[in-house]
């Protein structure tokens, strides 16, 4: 019998932990910065983003 490992990649429900807080995130165009921006926004923070190039999201 084959062992199959699965990983749950779903995000937990937002708790509003950062409601009323402001986060400035540099490097938000990709990678860890982009992931942090999404997580902070999901937790209801006001998010200000900075990226090195304009064509990066």
From TrEMBL:
Record InterPro entries: NAD(P)-bd_dom_sf, SDR_fam
Domain of life: Bacteria
Pfam family, one: adh_short
SUPFAM superfamilies: NAD(P)-binding Rossmann-fold domains
Protein known as: Short-chain dehydrogenase
